[in-house]
Amino acid sequence: MNHYLCLTDYEKNLIDNALLILMKKNIQYSEQSKENSVQQHYQNFNLTLFELCTKIKAHDFDKHMDLSSKEIKAIKKGLTSLYNRVYQKALKKTESHQESHYKSCKLQIIELERKIDIIEKSNIESNLC
Q1: Element at 2 (helix H, strand E)
Q2: Cα dist. 112→38, 93, 120 in Å?
Q3: Read out DSSP for 71-104?
Q4: Among residues 12, 6, 3, which one has the least CA distance to residue 108?
Q5: 9-32 and 69-92 helices cross at what angle (nearest 10)?
Q6: For the chain, where are the E strands, in sequence order?
Q7: By the 8 A CB rule, do 119 and 3 touch?
């Protein structure tokens, strides 16, 4: 059983950015590999991520669509990548107005991860019943 995830536009944009970062990493990993099966895996995963981006950005997402456990895990992996990137940028910037911007962004990512964790736990509990 899947559960619905109600997201704000800002949260949808965070997820979209997170998934795009993950896709870029997958392209790098795919290009570094000499094995066709590994390259195919990353290409397939990127297709899944692209479809997930489209699904999240849909206007009727909150009303008609839900996320599978696999999709939730992909979002969480992407958010971790986004958080790491924001953290690295925050370390490089020393100006006070940028520091508060990065801190706010990191807090938003953490809150979104908590929201997704609740849905993931609900999925797990539903599958145990």
Answers
A1: none
A2: 31, 24, 12
A3: HHHHHHHHHHHHHHHHHHHHHH---HHHHHHHHH
A4: 12
A5: 90
A6: none
A7: yes
43: pLDDT strictly greater than 70: yes
Under a CB-based contact definition with an 8 Å cutoff, are residues 25 and 45 in contact? no
Distance in angstroms (rounded) separating the CA atoms of residues 7 and 74: 16
Task: Kindly state the greatest CA–CA separation across the chain.
Answer: 52
Which residues, other chains included, contact 60 with Cβ-Cβ below 8 Å and sequence gap of 6+? none
Residues with Cβ within 8 Å of 29's Cβ and at least 6 positions away in sequence, in order, are: 38, 42
- Chain centroid, CA 35 distance in Å: 27
pLDDT digits (tens, 9 = 90+) for 67-111: 788 888 898 899 998 888 887 777 676 666 667 777 788 888 888
Given the structure tokens 């539903």, which residue do they identify? 126
Long-range contacts of 100-108 (CB under 8 A, 24+ apart): 108/10, 108/11, 108/14
- Torsion-angle region of 69 (φ positive above 0: left; ψ -120 to 50: alpha; else: beta): alpha
